[in-house]
Amino acid sequence: MYAKYLFKSPLNLLLMQCLCNVFICNTFMLWKTFVNPNAFGGLAKLGFKVVTYKEAISGTKFSLGLIIGIMNMIGVLFGLYAAKFCNIPLLLTNRRCMILATILMQMCLQGIFPDGKLCFIVSLMVAGAIVAGYESLDANGIGYIYVWMTNFTQAFQNVFTSKYNSQK
């Protein structure tokens, strides 16, 4: 959409995405709170639990949602600037290495070390990303930093969420 419709600022797309998310989530929560408390059971089976307003503002869920939302916003902003300073093939090539960033975050924050199979698979993915983006490696270095910051914010969000889910 950014390239096809010539948006002047990618932040306009971010704003629209955020507004649509707020509208959809509030609609679901309103329905579950005031119309049918048993609604959206099928979504819960898929891992998308719709909560009532009372559950949403309880201490743990509210703070978790706030932290994840802030980290997601930071990741999106890094991603937008990465798209500005990198060409799209190079951006996608570096984004493929997000699993490496997740493994590094797990090692640093949780002390979880990958087994040999996972190391082999990740090394193949990183090697494939290097081969895929080899011709574009002369791009602006600040773009690489933004892409990797996007990877690490997403990895932190994944590790934080998994740590919360394991404590349930």
Question: What does this protein look like?
Answer:
With 168 residues, the protein is mainly alpha-helical. It has helices spanning 10-35, 41-45, 53-56, 59-85, 88-95, 98-109, 116-133, 141-167. The longest helix is centred in the middle third of the chain and has 27 residues, at 59-85. The N and C termini lie far apart (39 Å).
Set down the secondary structure blueprint:
Elements: H1 10-35, H2 41-45, H3 53-56, H4 59-85, H5 88-95, H6 98-109, H7 116-133, H8 141-167
Low-confidence stretches: none
The Rg value, from CA coordinates, equals: 19 Å
Number of strands: 0
**Portion in strands:** under 5%
Mean pLDDT over the residues? 82
Which geometry do the CA atoms define?
globular
Identify the notable features of this structure and list them briefly:
single chain; 168 residues; mainly alpha; 8 helices
Can I get a quick summary?
The chain has 168 residues and is an all-alpha fold.
